[in-house]
Each structure stands twice: as C-alpha cells, then as structure tokens.
Protein 1
Amino acid sequence: MAGEITTIARPYAEAVFARAREREEVDTWGAALATLSVIAGDPHMAEQIANPNVSRERLCEAILEIAGEGLSSEARNLVSLLAANNRLSTLSEISRLFNELETRHQGVRQVQVLSAFDLDEGAQKELAAVLAKRLRAQVEMTVQADPSLIGGVVVRAGDLVIDGSVRGKLHKLANELQF
C-alpha cells in the first residue's frame, strides 16, 4: 500500500515542486505542505479522511480551517483538488516527496544502507564516496544493521535499489531455479 500511495502522490509533489521553483516559493510551499501533513496525519483527521461517509467538501473545509489564513491560495487550491479527487490521504506523502525533491535539487541524495554487519566509520566513508560518484550527488547516508541479510548490503536511494546482499542473491538464484 505504501508504494501505491507514493505512486499516487508523486505527480502532485512534482507539480507542486515545479510550481514552487518557478515562483521561487520552495520554502513557503515546504512549510505549507508540512502544516497540511501534520493536519492530515492527526489520528482523528486521518480517520475522517478514510471514512467514505464524510463529505469530501467538509473535509476540505475542515483542513483549510485548521490550517488558518497562513496558507496561500495555491495551497488552498491543492487541498481542494486533493479533496475532489479523494486524495487527501496522500498529503503526508506529497510533503515527504516534495522534501525529497528539494534535497535532490540541492544536489544531495538521501541514501539508506542496510548492512548485514555494523559498518565502521572508515567503511561508511568509503561507501559514501562510491555512492556519491555513482549517483553524481552529495550523499547523506543512514546505515542500519540487518543480520537477516546474511552478508553484503542493500542500498536505497529514492527509487533506486541496489541489492548486494547474500539474501538477495539467494532469492534471485531460487527464482532462476524456480524454487
């Protein structure tokens, strides 16, 4: 389901980011989306958004009322558009993707590394340098140990996934052998 929400949210985030850059309002849009994300992520509001018996217009009005006057007319239009298309549940993901686009635009890529073993600082620096060259961007890396990988690493940078783990290779081999 998370992948589906990302797929739905991505065109909205890309359109908003393009508009924000065009009007030189990236910071303003980032703040507006963060506010809307908090509102839509509130457990009570999320429950109402998921309830098909609640009017989309009423949800739109409630979100805009909670957001207050600080929201630009374009941000208000985005909320109305999302409500009309039954996409209010994607607000948090739109905000996350917008932030990711902003970071990428600044030449920085967020990279998550899962390693079978803890990586020492030297290994992390070496891996970061290799990834920076491969991605042609500055790399901000988070590293987690995951013993279930058996050996190797899995690297995630946005949509790019590099699976160099033993577990991944075993799954690939099993698929090729049709197990």
Note: Residues 108-176 form one domain.
Protein 2
Amino acid sequence: MKIGIAADHAGFKNKEALKLFLEEKGYQYEDFGAHSIDPEDDYSDLVKPLAIAISEQKIDRGIAICGSGVGVSVAANKFKGVRAALISEHYSAHQGVEHDDLNLLCMGGRVIGTALIEELTVAFLEAKFINHGRFQRRLDKVKAIEELNFKNL
C-alpha cells in the first residue's frame, strides 16, 4: 500500500510523530509536506499535492492533519477520486474504509493527541473496503455523482 501524509503548521508536529510511528509499524510513506513549520502556510496548499496523488492513483491512502481537520477534508474532497473525511474516533476510521472506500483520513492536530492519531491511523490502514452488495452500490452512486460534476474538467 502506498501511503501519503501531509500537514500544515498546525499539524506539523503530529505528522512528524506519525512518521516515526509508521516507520516503527513497517509502513512506507511519502511526505507531501509541510517540511518545516511556517505559521503563514495554508492547509489547502499542503493537502493539494496529496489529493492530486490520490486522484491520479499514485497513492492508495492518505493522511492529512491540520488544526481541526476540517480544512484539509474540505479541500481534499474537491479532487476527483478523493474520499476524505474528518475522523476523531475509532469506529469511523475503519468503517469509513469498509463501507465508503475512504482513502484520505483527516485529523485535527489541535483536537486529538498523538495516541489517538496512531490508533486511528492503524484502524484506517488495516481496514479493507467491502466491495460488494450495498457498499459497492453506494460507492458506484457516489462515483456517478463525481463523474457528473467533473465531466467538463
């Protein structure tokens, strides 16, 4: 699995800690930035390269962290093929993948701590989409909406 991570200044320290955790767990990842703390950076600029990589299927799953997690989730969902959600508890971290084929986990670095970020990351990365029945039907409907909205791009 190809994993991408990104964070703005508000999620930078969490992202750096997450990198160490991913390495300990044997995951390989690509860091899309920020690569240093810049209080003037914008979450939209930092999640954009990660969202593009997911949209172009160069990355299978992504993790983005900003202050609340809201900004990165809003911006990332503007890209075709990206299914991003703000997650702050265990059930949705795996259920979002299993039921909705979530491919970008968004978290708030100012809202949740390192231990929970690690727990949610593992739940997200270990989950698998249930690609049949109602789950596939629903995903197909979401993809049809996406095709309609991105058809002229």
Note: The longest strand covers residues 61-66.
Protein 3
Amino acid sequence: MNLPNKLSIIRIVIVPIIVLIMIFPYAQLGIELGAFQIQYVTLPYKNVVVLVLFAIASFTDFLDGRIARKKNMVTSFGKFIDPIADKLLVNTMFIMFAVQGIVPIVGVLLMIWRDTIVDAIRMMVGAKGKVMAAGNLGKLKTVLQMVAIIAILLCNLPFELFRLAVVDFLFWFATFVSVMSGVSYFIQAKDIILETK
C-alpha cells in the first residue's frame, strides 16, 4: 500500500476516534471536562481536541491527492477509498452535530442524499466507460462543509462575540452548494441517466 492510500486509511481511522470523543458519557462517569471562557462564549476543551483531529484528517485529504498526482501514485484502490474517507469524515461530523441539536437535520439529510445520488450517477457513468471529474461546485461544496464544521467546533467564534450568526449562514450555504453541485452532476449525466435502451 502506497503513502497516499495509507493517508486515506488514517483519515478513516480518525473518524471513530472523533465520534468516541464527542459521544463519550463523561458526566455519567463523573468526568468533568473543562472549557475556555471567551467573554460570554464557552468553548469546551472537547471541541478543541476534535478540531485538531479534524484538521489532521482534512490535511491528509489534501496531502494524499497531492502526493498521488505528483509522484504518479494514483491507484484504483486510491480512487475507491479517498472519496469514501472524505464522506465518512464530513458526513459523520454533520450527523453528530444534528444528533446534538447543533444543526438542523434537514440540511444534513440533503447533503447525505446528494452524496448518495452523485455516487449512483458516477457508477452509471462509469459503467458506460466514462469518468466524471469533480466540478468546481463539488470542490466548493467540500471547502464550505469543512469551514462550516470548523466554525461549529469553535462555537461560532469569533463571530459569536459580535452576535453574528456566521455559522448558520455557512451551514446553509454549504447545504445549498451541495444540492446545486448534485444538480450539476445530474445535468452532465442526464443523457445516460434517462437512457431508455
């Protein structure tokens, strides 16, 4: 297994660690977690730890693609595992936020549905021997999702100090771009999808 693929595996391994940190029953076990107090905003230490892990995982995403292309290490396994690692990381974070009531479940469902439909479209197109490259909207979607996750983990700091709901805007903007990128994929592949023969 080459280095880019190992980095993708590391990204996948980080996901359950993040989940464990976020859902661990600290209070029930009598464990008191501290927090940073920035004026009237409370930033739990737990969020900071998850943020560091998320940043490491996100960096491996950037790194594995860069190394694979530069060193000519692109493999079939890499093409398979990289998008899975990305979706596991991002979708897991949003699901955890929805479970905790931090973000609306509707937006999370829209993003997950979009990913499922796009994966199906890619499979149909692949079966015809064609390849659909990630478009600009798809890349923007990924960036916006990651920025939204970081903002949520930071409890909307520093914007919360000015009563600006930037995190809400980022979440819904990421949802909108996610849906629009899904529509874009459908339009590109509509001739194959709607083929009647």
Note: The chain has one domain: 3-193.
